[in-house]
Amino acid sequence: MAVNDQQLTDYYETLNLERAESLSGIQEKIQEMKVGWGQRATRAGSNGDEARLRMVVIEEALRVFANEDSREQYDLELSRSRRNGESAVLIGPDWSQRAWDYYFVHDLGAARVAASKAKQENPNESMPYVISAWINLGFDEHESAKRDADEAFVLEDGTGDSVDVHEVRGVTFHLLGNFDSAINSFKRALTAAGNQEKIAICGRMGYTYLLSKRDEEAFDNAIFALSNEFQLPLGPAAQLVEQAVTAVIRFADGKGTISDELASYKKYMTLISESGIQPEWKTKILESLQLLVDKVSRIAENKKRIQELRKIKKPEGARPDKPWKGVGVSLVSLLLSFVTPYFLVIFVISAGYSTFRFISSSNWNSAKSEFDSARNEIDGLSEHNERLQNERLDAKKKIAPLTLV
């Protein structure tokens, strides 16, 4: 909390925090700054040093605002120091740092003002234009973002801003539909990026690969990024998992028969199993693909069952009537046979005919019931297959969104 034994750091001013903000609101903003600056802190050079110093301040602030008691104690000490005429220490960021702070907490209006002041203060440095480009992207002003990114590119002179410059140019190229230039810019950003930044950049590049139908490169990019030894940030890693799954779906889809499609899935699942992807993310990819394999297998089973059910034919003709009259004749003939044997012959003939008719009616009813049951099952299986096919199409179309922050 203290920078030296006498003075306190004013974290409200240093981190652009509102004094009236709730504790949860302050904690959320500081955590967002930590994520943003944390990625940059993995970088070498002066920009990495700047980010690491910023992270020290952020970690101290998190301890100060850990709970209501620690905040209240800090506020009392800060107020007491002011009453005693002491000046709180402002670990004051320059305007570029302020713009990043505002940008990381999604306060784009304030970020734009700070970025404008940074440009005025340092008109020949690339970083103010990089920040301005990101802010314009946040406002969906893509053309303006491209102009700022180009300005940063021209001003970048090896001062360590190349990652920022090429990354933001990649995003602007992507959003303006120039995918090849976007990929080239992302590749240039990767050459100087820190570990955490590389994952985010690979995520953006993978998205560009998929939209430009370069599925093999999207797959290889995801495998490369997810095979790093260090801990992967959750958001970009999850994005790369979805991209790998999307690429495999595209490989397998339309391979001919369902057997060919299943073989394609198994081929890439084997490649993934044998890759160096971190276990957590490897499991997520394989589980997602296994769900799709199960769907395709079930579709194949349903189709086979439908073919079998179609072999069941509808019984021909109308349903035979039950011979109730014949039964009556048989009964009367049986009674009269006790009077004269002649009626016994009539009884035998009518009873045989009635039995035959009963059996025919029963067989027809059974066949009709079997046919109706088959039709109902076919309808149910067809609906199930249609639902499974739609789920497959949705999975094929699904691409993780481009993350700007």
Structural commentary:
The chain is mainly alpha-helical and 405 residues long. The protein has a domain at 11-83. The chain has 17 helices and no strands. The chain has helices at 11-14, 23-41, 45-64, 68-83, 95-104, 108-121, 127-138, 142-155, 162-175, 179-190, 195-211, 215-226, 234-252, 258-273, 279-310, 324-336, 342-397. Helix 5 (95-104) packs antiparallel against helix 6. The protein is elongated, with a radius of gyration of 37 Å. The two termini are 29 Å apart.
- Rg from Cα: 37 Å
Which segments are poorly predicted (pLDDT under 50) over 5 or more consecutive residues?
A: 1-6
Kindly state the percentage of residues in helix. Answer: over 70%
- Count of helical regions: 17
What form results from the Cα inertia axes? elongated
Mean pLDDT, all residues: 84
Helices and strands, in order, run as HHHHHHHHHHHHHHHHH
Strand content: under 5%
Number of DSSP E strands: 0
Distance between the termini: 29 Å
Oligomer: single chain
The major β-sheet equals:
none
Class inferred from helices and paired strands:
mainly alpha
